[in-house]
């Protein structure tokens, strides 16, 4: 599977959108603009790897954002699972 947006600026935009959307949808707070971009970019890698088993070819900009969003949700779930728990909160 190929994620269509080429260039570093496009990947940052996809990462920002996916990271922001994933942190907005999942419970809790975001990690700030830089943290959300990083979560989105790593999420794009995770989502791209997993989607590669099911999708062959290019998915376009919207498809890239959706794949990155799903990967970011998976990453946030993993981070929260291994993150420190709040006692009494």
Description:
- The structure is a single chain.
- The chain is mainly α.
- The protein has one domain.
- It contains 3 helices and no strands.
- The longest helix has 23 residues, at 60-82.
- The termini are far apart.
- The mean pLDDT is 77.
**How confident is the prediction overall: mean pLDDT?**
77
Largest β sheet strand count, sense and barrel closure? none
Q: Specify the helix fraction band.
A: 55-70%
How many domains? The number is 1
Give the structural class: mainly alpha
Give me the count of strands. Answer: 0
Q: From the alpha-carbon coordinates, what is the Rg to the nearest angstrom?
A: 13 Å
List the secondary-structure elements in sequence, H or E: HHH
Pick out the low-confidence regions: none
Distance between the termini: 42 Å
Strand content: under 5%
By DSSP (H or I, 4+ residues per run), the number of helices equals 3
| Coarse shape | globular
How would you sum up this structure in a few lines?
This protein is an all-alpha fold and 89 residues long. The protein is built from 3 helices and no strands. The chain has one domain (8-81).
């Amino acid at each position: 599977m190929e994620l269509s947006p080429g260039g570093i600026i496009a990947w940052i935009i996809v990462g920002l959108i996916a990271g922001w959307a994933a942190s907005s949808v999942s419970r809790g707070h975001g990690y700030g603009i830089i943290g959300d971009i990083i979560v989105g970019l790593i999420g794009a890698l995770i989502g791209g790897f997993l989607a590669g088993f099911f999708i062959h070819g290019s998915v376009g900009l919207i498809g890239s954002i959706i794949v990155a969003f799903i990967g970011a949700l998976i990453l946030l779930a993993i981070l929260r699972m291994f993150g420190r728990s709040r006692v009494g909160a």
